[in-house]
Amino acid sequence: MVLPVTNQWQCLPTQVPLLDSNSKYVTYYEGTLPLILAAPHGGRLFPTSIPDRTAGNGTVTVTDAYTKDVVLAIAKKIRERTGESPHVVLLQLARTKVDVNREKSEASDSDAGQMVWQEYHNTIQYALEKVNQNHNAGLFIDIHGHGHPENWIELGYLLDNQTLQLSDEELDHSKAKSEASIQNLSKRYPDIMFSSFLRGNSSLGTRLASTHHLRTTPSKQEPNPSQIKKYFSGGYCTQAYGSRDSGDFDAIQIELPKPLRFSASGRDQVTTALCESLAWMLQTFYHVDMRAKM
Ligand SMILES: [Zn+2]
Predict the structure, then answer these.
(1) Do you know which Gene3D superfamilies this protein is assigned to (predicted)?
(2) How far is the CA of 151 from the centre of ligand 1 (A)?
(3) How many A from CA of 281 to the centre of ligand 1?
(4) Segment among 65-74, 157-166, 181-190, 223-232 with least mean pLDDT
């Protein structure tokens, strides 16, 4: 069922009133669901007032192309289908200037860049507090793009490739559960095995692969990336806003391959799949009654 559109989305983007700077580098769309969607590497503003990062050969500056579009499309589809909105946080400043998916000390060479880092994370903090006012658990989704040749979706839970080589039984009896960015989800449902949340019937990966036919790892179909493959297990934001260390928020890093970002049909396919799959997660595990609205 599609509910009538209110002005909420028409007024966007909304700047967060409590922030000091209100700069043009961070965009926030306030939501109603216990879901935050973020795109930290999709920015395309290159102001000369903020120097480029120069911190050595390991500094990655590539833009995760189309990830802002993907986040906005997921949010709009959820809104159209349910009448409810996720919170959205987008960085407009290019990754050559600041990398907000790193510790602040490594994020930028300049005070100006670090101020944007602070504003980005203040905005996420604001969204977390908004969610916590009405919900006792939430989900943070960090959207990225990769160029690995497998062209699958990589889901990051802070568990490295080696850990994902373990069998389900080994995983369920290892310390992986307490090292994962969905530790709180697993604790809230002690009757469901941890491996099921990671790559079984209770996982986002299996939902994307089974229901939407999108190759995803980890999932029941692709339980782990082969050991020789490059795989992103989750960065700073997944650590900071997931439940590995503490808290009621779980986090998943979603790395999208180029075919699902660079064409309009690919983006439509993946955003439709993520809209449905994230709504399923919220309804099944985060106490949100989406069924009445879908
Ligand atoms: Zn990225």
Answers:
(1) Zn-dependent exopeptidases
(2) 15
(3) 23
(4) 223-232
In sequence order, which residues have a C-beta less than 8 Å from that of residue 56 and are 6 or more positions away?
A: none
Ligand 1 centroid to residue 233 C-alpha, Å? 11
pLDDT one-digit tens code per residue, 135-187: 999 999 999 999 999 999 999 999 999 999 999 999 999 999 999 999 999 99
Give the predicted TM-score (pTM) of the model: 0.92
| pLDDT digit string, tens, across residues 244-266 | 999 999 999 999 999 999 999 99
Phi first, then psi, for residue 205 (nearest 5°) are: -60, -45
Which residues, in sequence order, are CB contacts of 135 under 8 Å at separation 6+? 34, 286, 287, 288
**What is the distance in A from the centroid of ligand 1 to the CA of 64?**
6
What is the CA(90)–ligand 1 centre distance, in A?
Answer: 12
Query: Which residues on adjacent β-strands are paired with residue 142?
Result: 38, 253
Measure the N-to-C terminal CA separation of the chain; round to a whole number of Å.
Answer: 5
Is residue 78 within 8 Å of 86, Cβ to Cβ? yes
Determine the distance separating the centroid of ligand 1 and the alpha carbon of 147, expressed in angstroms: 10
Q: Which amino acid is at 284?
A: T
Question: What is the architecture of the domain spanning 26-53+61-285?
Answer: 3-Layer(aba) Sandwich (3.40)
Ligand 1 center to 250 CA (angstroms):
19
Q: What type of residue sits at position 72? A: L
Q: Is the pLDDT of residue 211 over 60?
A: yes
Tell which phi-psi region holds residue 203, choosing left (phi > 0), alpha (psi between -120 and 50) or beta. beta
Q: Positive or negative, the Cα torsion across 128, 134, 135, 136? A: positive
